[in-house]
Amino acid sequence: MTEEFHRIRRLPPYVFAEVNQAKARARAGAEDIVDLGMGNPDSPTPPHIVAKMVEAVQNPTTHGYSASKGIPGLRRALAGYYARRFNVELDPETEVVATLGSKEGLANLASAISSPGDTILVPNPSYPIHQFGFIIAGASVRSIPHTPDEAMLEALDRAVRHSVPKPTALIINYPSNPTGLMASLDFYREIVAFAKKHEIFVLSDLAYAELYYGDAAPPSILAVPGAKDVAVEFTSMSKTYNMAGWRMGFAAGNRRLIAALTRVKSYLDYGAFTPIQVASVAALNGPQDCVEEMRKLYRERRDVLVKGLKQAGWDVPVPEAGMFVWAPIPERYRHLGSVGFSKLLLAKAKVAVAPGLGFGEHGDTHVRIAMVENTHRIRQALRGIRGFLATDNGGPASEAAELASAELVKE
Prior knowledge:
The protein is α/β, with parallel strands linked by helices. The protein has 2 domains: 6-44 and 290-410, Alpha-Beta Complex (Aspartate Aminotransferase, domain 1), CATH 3.90.1150; 64-285, Aspartate Aminotransferase, domain 2, CATH 3.40.640.10. 45% of the residues lie in helices and 12% in strands. It contains 14 helices and 12 strands. A 7-stranded mixed β-sheet has the order 2-8-7-6-5-3-4, with helices on both faces. It has a 3-stranded antiparallel β-sheet with strand order 9-12-11. Helix 6 links the parallel strand 3 (119-123) and strand 4 (140-144). Helix 3 runs antiparallel to helix 10. The protein is globular, with a radius of gyration of 22 Å.
């Protein structure tokens, strides 16, 4: 009885836990840590959405079990959003299901469509549930490049030719968490054509659809003619409306996949609390000024963070979308790996970030920096980083870096 359960054995130790434990120890010691690790929005949910929630809660008829697939008005609201935003028509009855956040939807669909021995194609690095949702379901994962370009398309071709059995599904995520990369509609056309040719399902994670910084808004794969033959797409209220803790998301697209997810969910949950669903209708159908304000807020934070890091000597790419900077570890600390560097940054700069290893082994050369603090706190973090990088400049294997890392590993 001492062996771990089979599915648990397939899950490695949670990488983020190491940094979280170090952060907790620092805070227990009364240290002021600027937490740019978890992508947890710090702004409040817009007042009109909260007001609708309060109104619905005060109606006792909303206190019972809800609808697992989502109340009809909510599914219609999501279909209306897709029509306005992407010019995509969805049948609210057969092509939309509400989920308890996009993460739950992805995990339950993985359970619905995969079996032990199935092969799933997942970008590396990518959001952990993209890989581990299928691993928990017993499938095998094959990594492909994370960039929406020819390199991914070539890797997909190799994967189909050399995987036995043939891959069941492909995961894509643009705008990407953690990299912030966006995909074009032309790229989605290539993906849809590939999936149709090889009879592979496509699961698109579009959680950051409204968090972009240029003039071109991220497209939906469902806007490609015929995409619904092979694709389902997940969206979320979490970042768009600062509703992360409300746990409301959606899956939309291919009827067979939506039916499979709906059936699994019918055994597992009764849906989100009805007042949350009612408030989500108000969010989707109501005034959208709050969404533009959210974009402006993150754009300002992005610009302050990127400029400050570059002034500190840390050259990072400017993200096109999303709420993260995907930062390559400075060369002289590359040997520490992302977990070691994250711990060092916490100890020396008093800044918490997410180690790139948590998003796949190909992310171990980076850390993810979340823009989840106000500009005052971001500037505080930048002062700590600038001071750390300026004083610890002893070369590729600086004695200070090695010593601090060794001490942290011992803890």
